[in-house]
Amino acid sequence: MGRRESGMKGLLSRYIGVVIAVAGLLMFIFGVISGETDEVLRKAATICLECIGLR
């Protein structure tokens, strides 16, 4: 019985990892399609410039 439970637990954790990876990929694709990459890059550059005192 213990072996069967550990096999199911391993299988479940593998599926959870795959589901999380697919969800992340879908969110990434949605962000690229909606043009969020430009906004993120602009904000990152602003923060960097503020950090080193140029802005």
Describe the protein.
By secondary structure, the chain is mainly α. The protein is elongated, with a radius of gyration of 20 Å. The model has no long low-confidence stretch (mean pLDDT 85).
Summed up:
The chain has 55 residues and is mostly helical.
Beta-strand content bin: under 5%
Specify the structural class: mainly alpha
Distance between the termini: 64 Å
Helix content: over 70%
Shape: elongated
Structure characteristics:
55 residues, mainly alpha, 87% helix
List the helices and strands and how they pair.
Layout: H1 2-33, H2 36-51
